[in-house]
Each structure stands twice: as structure tokens, then as C-alpha cells.
Design a protein that fits this description.
Elements: H1 3-8, E1 13-18, H2 24-39, H3 52-64, E2 68-75, E3 78-86, E4 98-106, H4 115-129, E5 134-140, H5 144-152, E6 156-167, E7 170-180
Parallel strand pairs: 4-5
Antiparallel strand pairs: 1-2, 2-3, 3-4, 5-7, 6-7
Length: 187
């Protein structure tokens, strides 16, 4: 490849719903991206980097859990971010129209390509198709980029938990959001 074609290379980006077990390469990419996100302070609950075995077990468990859906972002076919949707339990008919978004991140080296927005849009599209009407989520107040993205995409802030997170001997508030993705349910 010439130097000129390297300079002009536009990376391929995309998101997808993971409907089956991850390949060995995808699992490795996902663990690498998770490591990078944790080191950057966005480890969706992890403060300290877990072992590779713990990460692999975690992600394999997410894929097989009947109440979780995994969406991944790819940059040049390499998994670089995720989000999960937690489905309502079957016994909670009263809240059966809601899902909860959790563990959204894009590795620092893959930011700036619109992948976080693409993940949210894909989650919303699939959630609507599956008959859900509301997405709930929470985010640490320190995640200013994520807060901006959620608010730009129409998520409504409805509360703050002042003692939600403890990391590095500090208390961090969390902001709680919801978005009505299928308003017809409430007409």
C-alpha cells in the first residue's frame, strides 16, 4: 500500500447485535477494548483491571444470559466498544415495556467515529422492533461526553443519586435518564 493510500484510508465502522457466542478473536478484541476503557476510567463498575480470565468469563456470560443483549461496535472489523440491554424479567409485567441500557463504552483509541451514537441507535431500533417502549439508563456525572450524547439523542434526566459510585476513595453522583422510544404505547 502506498503512503498516499494509507493517508486516504477511511476506516470501516459499524455496530451489530451479538446473537451467538463470540469467536476467539472477537472475545480477545472485546477484552482488549474493555481493558482500555477501564484504564481510561469508564469501566462500567470496574475500578481496577480484572484478570483476562475474569473478563472472558464475564463477556461469555453476557452472551449466554437470557435477560441480556450485547451490541458491539467495530472499527476496521475490530470490536472496540459495547453496550448491553437488560431485559425486564418475565415476572415483571408492570414494567415489561422497559429495558435498561448498561455498560456502554467505546475504547479511547476508537473514539471520534460516531460509534457510541451508532450503538444507541441500533439499541433503540432493536428495542422498538422487540416491542419495548422505554429505555432507562444511568451514568456517572463525570462522564460528560456520554451525558452530552444521551441528552442530544433525547434522553431525559429525571434524577441524581448522590452516593451512587465509590471509586478511588471518592463518591461520584450518577445521573438517571429515560427515553420513550415508542410513544404509541402511551396514547
Amino acid at each position: 500500500m502506498s503512503e498516499q493510500s494509507k493517508v486516504n484510508h477511511e476506516p470501516s465502522v459499524g455496530v451489530e447485535f451479538v446473537a451467538e457466542a463470540l469467536s476467539k478473536n472477537d472475545l480477545n478484541d472485546l477484552c482488549d477494548a474493555t481493558d482500555a476503557a477501564i484504564k481510561d476510567g469508564g469501566g462500567f463498575g470496574w475500578v481496577n483491571l480484572p484478570s483476562r480470565e475474569i473478563l472472558e468469563n464475564y463477556w461469555n456470560g453476557v452472551v449466554t444470559a437470557p435477560t441480556r443483549e450485547l451490541f458491539v461496535a467495530r472499527l476496521d472489523d475490530t470490536i472496540c466498544g459495547t453496550t448491553q440491554v437488560v431485559l425486564p424479567p418475565k415476572n415483571n409485567e408492570a414494567q415489561g415495556h422497559t429495558v435498561t441500557l448498561t455498560t456502554q463504552f467505546v475504547a479511547p483509541w476508537a473514539r471520534g467515529y460516531g460509534l457510541a451514537k451508532m450503538l444507541l441507535e441500533e439499541v433503540e431500533k432493536k428495542s422498538i422492533a422487540d416491542g419495548y417502549a422505554v429505555i432507562n439508563l444511568d451514568v456517572r456525572e463525570t462522564m460528560e461526553g456520554a451525558i452530552h450524547l444521551y441528552e442530544t439523542l433525547g434522553y431525559k434526566h429525571f434524577g441524581t443519586h448522590p452516593f451512587s459510585v465509590r471509586a478511588n476513595n471518592k463518591t461520584i453522583q450518577s445521573r438517571f435518564y429515560y427515553k420513550v422510544i415508542n410513544p404509541k404505547l402511551f396514547e
